[in-house]
Amino acid sequence: MERRGPGRLQPRNVSSRESTVSRTNRFASKPNSTPKSSSRVASGGEKAQNDGVDDPSDLPAIVGTCPLMCPERERTQRERLRDLAVFERLNGNPAQSSPDLAVKKFFRTISTKQVEASDVRPLPVLEDTLNYLLNFFDSREYPFEVVHDFLFDRTRSIRQDLSMQNIVNNKVIRMYEKMVKFHVISLHKLRRCSSQNTSSMNYLNKEQLAKTLTSLFNLYDANRDSNSTYENEAEFCSFYVLLHLGSNSQPMGESLSWWFRNVPSTLMKSKEICFSRKILRFFRIGNYNCFLSTIAAEASYLQYCILEPYVNEVRALAVSCINNGGYKLHPYPLANLSKLLMMTESDLESFCKACGLEICTNEEGYNLLPTKQTTFCHPKDGFQSYIFVGLEQFESGTLKPKRK
Predict the structure, then answer these.
(1) Contact by Cβ (8 Å): 378, 312
(2) Tell me, which GO biological process terms does this entry list (predicted)?
């Protein structure tokens, strides 16, 4: 096992209190004990990310005492204002909730000078609150947009409470891993929503994914033993690489080449990061065959959630290359093309038509793609969702075990 170098993903403008975290605080019973020096951000970078907490560098960390998922004062006020999410309403009443239903909201601007300990939830309450929230994730009672909007805000509030208390331990790391998974799977689920405002929701979700992932990396480093890496760290690092597939994408403010230089060999040699590096290389050089076949053979569900929007982009590249590079008198069999693109033949017909290409049928009844068509184009509204043959179990949008 190898210790991570000191330069990975250090958020800018970090307060002095945030940059002083003790590795010996790993299993500390007091969540806000004053730590010793460290090169990593204790609270996971939430304050450094301007996520709603003023700089408290001259103040001690708060020790939360609120025993409920939502402080009673806030719940009473929100009942009076009828500001209750559908999941918080008692018997459907928009003006009535209960301690078992109400969950503390996220406040965009908040100062530790103004916050009382009774309004901040301690770690055990935050753990229970997160588990309670994630039980809604696969709910079919409401559209996913409604579920996501509720969880998006309330998990952000959990991060805010953790940040104000400067809690650093393994339990917090597990909580952040769960919240990263929530945002990753939401990328997949939001693409399947019919609502018109999901594009903005997807953008905000990806933004918070980047922040939460940055926080998790800093927690790994702040809480690390001298020569250790965490069990799930390699897979979460692979998410960081895959988030760079888009052109000029730097979701966390640092270039990928800089980041690679600071990742230790232990993680660089892991199958998760090797997979993400191969995918990145195949995508950038336009090797559509290796890109798609590698996903089919090696991708985990969470990795696929990030990769999914790029799959149709690569499929379109493949169709364009075959259309332009084929012989005009020798149409390309759709059966062969469907295997190459990991699609069913019926989906492939729809895909080709979306690209402005016509399909023909020969005397034997086989569907063919005539090449050298000049009508190829990318659909203005983007591609619809198509099943990735071999990964059908990923299409349902529920968290499956990682593929071996």
Answers:
(1) no
(2) mRNA export from nucleus
* Integer Cα distance of 155 and 102 in angstroms: 13
Query: What residue has token string 């250090």?
Result: 10
Q: Which amino acid does the sequence have at 84?
A: L
Cβ-proximal residues to 34 (8 Å cutoff; 6+ apart), any chain: 20, 60, 61
pLDDT tens digits along 349-396: 999 999 999 999 998 999 999 999 999 999 988 888 898 998 877 765
- If 0-12 CB within 10 Å is exposed, 13-18 middle and 19+ buried, where does residue 196 land? exposed
Read off the pLDDT of residues 283-292 as tens digits, 9 standing for 90 and up: 999 999 999 9
DSSP string computed for 120-178: S--HHHHHHHHHHHHTTTT--SS-HHHHHHHHHHHHHHHHHHHHHHT--SHHHHHHHHH
Q: Which of 175, 189, 169 is nearest to 31 (CA)?
A: 169
